[in-house]
Amino acid sequence: MSISDYGGGQTEHSDVLVVTTNDVPGHRVERVIGEVFGLTVRSRHLGSQIGAGLKSMVGGELKGLTKTLVQTRNQAMERLVEQARARGANAVLMMRFDVTEAADIGTEVCAYGTAVVLTPQG
User: Fold this and answer.
1) In the chain, what are the domains?
2) How far is residue 79's CA from residue 120's CA, in Å, rounded to a whole number?
3) Alpha carbons 88 and 41: distance in angstroms, whole number
């Protein structure tokens, strides 16, 4: 597995900036659009569940589940950006992830934040 299998986030060329902070240095919030979110639910495939069960007996990282969770978080974030863009935002402030088990069959991941229009301070 490569380093990209364990991380995510935006590319430097994204037209919608996503940050976990309340503001962006050098910019001011011109307009608050409101809450946006991206949601996805992923089930685990049988092979990763069996492997995770065996691995949990001896300890160590569950790499198959890690990779699945990274892919799920990235998909939720992509959906968050799509929603922000569709509503006219160029940034999402205070982005967070919420992760829960969904009816014991998968993992629900929600990326959420506040969609805004930022302008550079002059």
Assistant:
1) 3-120 (3.30.110.70)
2) 26
3) 26
Per-residue DSSP letter, 23: -
- Find where tokens 């829960």 sit: 100
Residue 64: which pLDDT band, with cuts at 50, 70 and 90? confident
- Which of 6, 68, 19, 75 is CA-nearest to residue 43? 68
Q: Chain-centre distance of CA 24, in angstroms? A: 19
**Dist. CA 117–CA 17, nearest whole Å:** 10
Report which secondary-structure segment, H or E, holds 44.
none
For residue range 72-89, list pLDDT tens digits in order. Answer: 899 999 999 999 999 999
Q: In this predicted model, what pLDDT tens digit does every residue of 102-122 receive, in sequence order?
A: 777 778 899 999 999 999 997
